[in-house]
TrEMBL record:
Signal peptide coordinates: 1-21
Record's protein name: Prolyl oligopeptidase family serine peptidase
Keywords from the UniProt entry: Hydrolase, Signal
Keyword Ubl conjugation listed: no
Superkingdom, natural source: Bacteria
Residues in coiled coil: none
Pfam families (UniProt xref): Peptidase_S9
Peptidase S9 prolyl oligopeptidase catalytic domain sequence ranges: 640-793
Amino acid sequence: MFRQSLAAAALAGVFTIAAFAQDEAYRLPPQDIVDIVDAPAAPWTSLSPDRRHLLLIHRENLPPVSELARPMERLAGLRLDASTNGRHGPRTAIGLSVIDISSGEERAINLPDDVGLSNFDWSPDGRYAAFVVADGDELSLWVADVHRARAREVISGGLNAVFDPVSWMPDSQTLLVHTIPADRGPMPERPVVPAGPVIQVADGYEAPVRTYQDLLEDAHDAALFAWMAETQLVLVNANRGRPRPVGEPGLIYSADPAPGGEMILIGAMEQPFSYDVPWSSFADRTYVIGLDGNEIAEIARQPIADNVPIGGVITGRRNVGWQASHPSRIIWSEALDGGDPRVEAVERDSVWMLDAPFDGEPVEVARFEDRYYGTQFTSEGQTGLAVEYDRDTRIIRRWVIDFANPGGEMRLAEERNLQDSYANPGSPETTRNEFGQSVAAVEDGYLYYTGDGSTPEGDRPFLRRVSFETFEAEEIWRNSGENYEEVIGLVSPDAATFLTSYQDPVTPPNVRLHGEGEARFITDFANPHPQLNEISRELITYEREDGVSLSATLYLPADYEEGETLPLLIWAYPLEYNDAATAGQVRGSPYQFTRVAGTSPRFLVTQGYALLENATMPVIGDDPETVNDTFIEQLVMSAQAAVDESVRRGFGDGERVAIAGHSYGAFMTAHLLAASDIFRTGIARSGAYNRTLTPFGFQSERRTFWQAPDVYFELSPFMHADEINEPILLIHGQLDNNSGTYPMQSERMFAAVKGNAGTARLVMLPYESHGYRGRENVLHVLAESIDWLNRWVLPEEDPTGRTPVEPEADGAGE
């Protein structure tokens, strides 16, 4: 049904590549793929805090490239739209409806036509949902009453959405909103002739900054960013409107109401800005104001954070925030090791608290052996679940701390390797406390945990009742059968009724209510591409040469016949692990819906290819400082094991095989083509290939280029471009803003392969970032990929003329 004649496809692929070699027009893949790409997307769902309603956020399909092409300001690590004074990017959400959980009735919420919706935020009591409406160049604030299924405009225009523009006060009636100051003046214009050169200074201290993009470049950029970021906070009633200014305008990036509702914690950037780091590392000040706008106290002040050690943290007060279970208490953490993970230390972090009016001495709450990563407060008194993590061993611990008894004994709730999915106890379900804050729910002495439930057979999500005293767990429910179902929220506090998201290979995720007799569906979202129902899907396991267990999801075409050998695409992304046991664990489920959208490699299955998706490529080392020393060797072992398994199972012939990946998967692809002859070709999307361009670390590499130059050289596929003797298709967004994956990375890699007489094709996608969103670009990527594989992988005889390597007939067992 989906496959054309292999010979005809191979011939068509050859002529297609040749015919379009100089053609810059957009191309389309086969019509059956276009139809799938254009299929409508199901709504997002959001459960109200009172657990009575389900908000459906209706989505638009892929936007046209013309929406991506709107003018963009690339400032301080952000991409902004000066015409809206918000983030740049196409709209996604376009409509709302609400479902009453008890009755199952769905009602549409009337909104203006042809608008985009964003920044959804529930009121603490669950009656209202605030959101931003984009209508042309105007951003306005709206509030939906979900009980009545009605929405009204609260602030008409003038929102400042550079940062999160809206939050609820604890009374569930009042909103704290970021707006554009009325007197800020016109947008700064770039001078034709600059006032002088751009100068940066190094003052003799270490400043190992990652390769960020979209940074400020000159004085005009700094002035424009300040103009867009300057904010006037206002308070406005959700029903009556009438905004009231609070405090003076400033470069405010966060405004967090106190749980008691009488104060606001402000985070504000300070000038001068830096040209070396994004806004989140600019100098800033944290302070508290009253609802009258007057400053009550300064809590913290930080200089530009351009000298933070790799993997380290700033010194002084960090992670400043309110204690969710206290009306007006500030908590924060401080490094005890200078923020440097390389320093030997018995204790690395401490946590402090200070009560309003913040003029007393701070109180130390606890100290931690490893780095502190925050506390999730509970509904039980002033207790919280505090997290510490050791980056070397990857050990995570959760401690129960009573903030009413600072310095008291902590109770260990969890200790495990963060990557040990089988031992993951999940996370607690939440509720709203007396202050309207989201906290871990403790009901009659029990927490209720939900999690993925990873097992050697795949994920089986669960719901458990966990003693808050002993943390012993009792399983209430677990997913079973040939479906994938996970808890999305409790309806009753004791978990007698709860909501799940249910899916199976041919049914998209739908919401289901458990606990009121037989489980019943709340939603009925249709399969957007029923024509793919017959595609087979299987979670397979196998071993590589050194005994490490591997896994992948195998997809085979609808009309596949047992014993038939197919051209094979392997899609992967390498990850680092401390040990083989966690690296070999199975993650994912064979029973999830086979969603095919965007630039998914699953589209190749419709064209007659076998697909091994998410084929694990673990890089294992007990010393995280040197794990990358065997990176390439371990990649080759994992790749060979996947190919050998395809031969053993009979769907692969060991010759017609391609490797592909995105980002670090593209980096992997180039390495495998340079270091082995396992594959006929590769497709590398949005990768980084020259590690000397990311000299202060990359992925989990902690050493700098100057500390390990040989490693950086060996781990740069660019340095081995002369060894890539298979064709490679390089695809990259022209506006990629991901750290390290500059568009130049693919451009220079292409030039290196071409300059060494290799075979390559470079596709640069207009207006795209690290992922691809424009409809024309998405379809073009699919067309390019199909044509490329049809040319180099589909034919029985290798078009490159290489002598095939004899595949191993006996692979590892399941």
